[in-house]
Amino acid sequence: TMGGYPDFMAKEIAEQPEAIERLLKDRLGPDGVRLDELAMTDEEIAAIDRIFIVACGTSYHVGLIARPLIEEWARIPVAVEPASEFNYEDVLVTDHTLCIIITQSGETADTLASARKMHAAGAKVLAVTNVIGSSAAREADGVLYVQAGPEVSVASTKAYTAQMVAAELIALFLAQRNGNLGAREVARRFHELQRVPAMIREVLHRSWQDEAAARAFVESSSALFLGRGLNATTAAEGALKLKEISYLHAEAYPAGEMKHGPIALIDPGFPVVVICPDDRVRYKTLSNIQEVKARGATVVTVATDGDQKTAQLSDYLLLVPAAPEYLVPIVAVVHLQMLARYVALARGCDIDKPRNLAKSVTVE
Ligand code: F6R
């Protein structure tokens, strides 16, 4: 049941801190991050030549976040593909290739087909899923359950953030087991991850910021989402949520690519959401805010607490607590989930059952 919430999406957004706490519980042992589910020996891990992450929709976005983290921490090359593309490609696989499928429902037909294709090619398949006993769980060699609890709303929220945490656990685990990160560093990053639920709770208390910012979209027919690095993906996920439940056209772009085309869209009042946390590319993203501002855009910014400069340039601020770069996508997206929901409410849309969509897509 909805337990007093107006819709399942509201409930599931609110459940994110507990979901992540459940996932992280008992995951740090004396030897570092524990992921017995992976069922791979140190020799097998050391021999991995490439990882394919294959998924659809929101789960595909988790893969985009995971890629640079696995590459940076575990130094293993990673390719991320939407399953519906991957299945028709001639991919380079060896028996040292690891395939990670990410699927909340565990029933997405394209994703399951990818797992079969990889198995047939000799790769090992790890499933990250939310549903116990799902087809993905049964077909994979190893399963990491994200334990977010049933997700009813068609728009995925708590599964997205829990899957990102799961992906970061996998990245830490691989890095520790192949010797690229020492035990102390792994433990330090794990303890940082444990701060995420509290940071999300803080963002949940700021839903009034999203409710206010929703006004910028109600009368418009289109919106642009910009971000850099990991948060180019946060922008993509924010745009997907908005399209899905408010039926507003939304497009995401890596912020620096904007001037190569989409900036032509901007006219006075055009809503632009910019993910601009305090990270190593903040000053570059700030210049993108200036560019759209100069053309009259209404700017909604996700920024870090205390960032005066960004605040001055923004029409609406969605503030997040200061966090290491690899945690920001998990925390920042919560604002974009709430923003999409408020826009959809203002436009009179069905929050939990958007038109034309089903919770799991079981046809290829
Ligand atoms: C978006 C959404 C979809 C799913 C996609 C994959 O909010 O829910 O994009 O993420 O259909 O579903 P799973 O993860 O069940 O394979």
Automatic annotation (TrEMBL):
Subcellular location: Cytoplasm
Alphabetized UniProt keyword annotations: Aminotransferase, Cytoplasm, Glutamine amidotransferase, Repeat, Transferase
Span of domain SIS: 41-180, 213-354
Active-site residues per Swiss-Prot or TrEMBL entry: 359
Main location class: cytoplasm
Catalysed reactions, semicolon-separated: D-fructose 6-phosphate + L-glutamine = D-glucosamine 6-phosphate + L-glutamate
Iron recorded as keyword: no
EC number: 2.6.1.16
Keyword field contains Thylakoid: no
Example of a GO MF term: glutamine-fructose-6-phosphate transaminase (isomerizing) activity
Oligomeric form and interacting partners: Homodimer.
The protein's role, per its UniProt record: Catalyzes the first step in hexosamine metabolism, converting fructose-6P into glucosamine-6P using glutamine as a nitrogen source.
Name the UniProt record assigns to this protein: Glutamine--fructose-6-phosphate aminotransferase [isomerizing]
Organism: Kribbibacterium absianum
Gene name, Swiss-Prot/TrEMBL: glmS
Covered range of the whole protein: 253 to 616 of 616
